[in-house]
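Here is a protein:
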Amino acid sequence: MIRLDHLSKRYHDVTVVDDVSLTVETGQIGALVGTSGSGKTTLLRMINRLVEPSAGRVWIGDTDAATLAPHLLRRRIGYAIQGHGLFPHRTVGENIATVPRLLGWREAEIGARIDELMHLFDLDPALYRDRLPHALSGGQQQRVGVARALAARPELLLMDEPFGALDPVIRARAQTDLRAIQRQLGTTLVIVTHDMEEAITLGDRIAVMDKGRLLQYAPPAEILTAPATPFVEALVGSAERPFRLLSLTSVADLREAGTAPGPEIAPETTLREALALCLWQGRTALPVAGGGVVTLAALQARAEGGRV
């Protein structure tokens, strides 16, 4: 668990983070979203003391982060940034091994952890372990960057716009992979993004910031259906809201008895994905693996105002 308790940061007479309190529960993802200059990156960096707070406290579990030496604190916290931040003259394996070596792990333990993470991120160690970063695609580099941040099994992973430099297709895959891996490992994660779509896709709770203040901190469905301020409402977007709501629910919750031609879709397919399939392929119903169908009519009704 991570708890921010009345956290503020001032530079002379300018307040960039103003009295922010929030909690990210163990094993959950907290997404910090806002426009440039909203204070979200400064807030993230105060968690691992890359920026020292002017007021307030950061709690990692039951530990006040201010009581730990900064280098010891950062060894407990993984950190991944936009553009991956890999060491260009170190191989993939050497990059992933960076923090475990600093912590004095045995070489056999380090080697096993490298292989474990590379398999987890769908990177065959035999093919990629000894490659330099420039020999990887952008998506592969980003996966290695996240693997490096997770190498020492940190209690907490911080991510600052980690997918901002990726193209839309690779970015969507990276988000899906991150969510699946985070669920598998149970890592507590705080991610900064300027993209509400990404915040909704990844966040268990979303913190919307503007001009250094926390405007709303709530689950995605609440952010979408009950925005606390006009700024939050504008950030959500009225035109996009129905489709973003559909992305929060799977077809398993909307399927009904019946059959339909064509390939089955997985029960965890989102309603948004199912609607896109129906419209793109001109189908009125999709069969769901395990039985039942989801119909275009039901999807359209949900998009037009049904509750998620």
About this structure: The longest strand covers residues 14-24. Residues 168-185 form the longest helix (18 residues).
